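Thread: quick sanity check before group meeting

JM: Hey all, I'm pulling together slides for Thursday and realized we never actually wrote out the predicted structure for the chain we discussed last week. Dropping the sequence here so it's in one place. If anyone has concerns about the input, flag it before I start.
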Amino acid sequence: MLNSAPTGAAGTPPTPLRVAILGTRGIPARYGGFETFAERLAAGLVARGHRVTVYAEADGAPGADTTHLGVRVRSRRRPRWGPASVLAYDCACLWDARRGYDLVYMLGYGAAWACWWPRVAGVPVWINVDGLEWARSKWGKLARTYLRTMEWVAARTATRLIADADAIAARFRSVYPRGAPCSFIAYGADPVQPGEADPALLSAWGLQPWRYLLVVARLEPENHVLEIIEGHRLYGGALPLVIVGDVSDATDYQRRLLALAGDRVRFLGAIYDAAPLRSLRLYAAAYLHGHSVGGTNPSLLEAMACGNWVIAHDNPFNREVARDAADYFRTPAQLADGLRCCAAQTSAQAAAERGRRAREIVADHYTWPRIVDAYEALMHEQCTPRRSP
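JM (edit): ok, ran it. Output follows.
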């Protein structure tokens, strides 16, 4: 991963760039990983003198542009067309961004075919390929076929692909050797030290520090929440399993999970407020991570940044991130064994050492300044200002 930006002749800084970031619901970040990423990257680039626009959803007619942390926020209408509304919104943003920028950065490849619009105008387009979106079980056969096709299209319409995990980047280079070059730049997190979150916030859910196990995830099959619940049942310990994730969609899978709710399995719903979520993470006895189709997952990074005892689903993406700072499972029985191992750590020193190692990995590889450094360096290398800013 690149670490620093070049300078111009005689040590002068390069000309600032005009960058558009698309593919999120907008900022301030209130929804998920892409929104947090867009906010942190955009604000970091603005602090270095660049002019950055983040496109945001508007329920009705778009209002006037606003500003957040020095970032221009430009709204486009998202129609209510069910699953197709996201595609329509992304296309509206791409059409609007086809001129006036030195770089268009699209997060996600669902509208990859429309990325030709800025390209025709001579504007470079980067696409963040995220994880294996087409592999998510929430999609039907038609949607999976479309997304698999868009992955192929993205490798041909983008001037550069960006993956937030080296395993994802390696896959794209292997599957699409004649496609756009694929660079690896990770996601970021802020290390959280003991005492930086308020344990009193746990009382809203009747929880006590170190007396619960935590999952933070979208409740979808590929995140293995059901297997985690089954592993917790096999473990049989006294600590309740606390699950943070939106259940408002009431899918068949979510209904199956909710049927298992009780004193030992508690569903808190979605929590987007940073302070209580930080407290939930920091004071968990262990964090259980079942994600399996993404790249560098924000929930895993944020748990490591809090020094959690992590037990993660065993796949290349999670092992790339957590390394030797986690235990791994593939089956409920293996998770139960991991929980027994965690409970057997009677020495506070063992847990402290695991937390120190997790924070060390985040500090060495995943801090936001390091991520912004890498993006700025690649932007200066690949993008040329097309007119004076």
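AS: nice. Residues 1-10 have pLDDT under 50 and may be disordered. Residues 139 and 335 are 27 Å apart (CA to CA).
JM: adding both to the slides.
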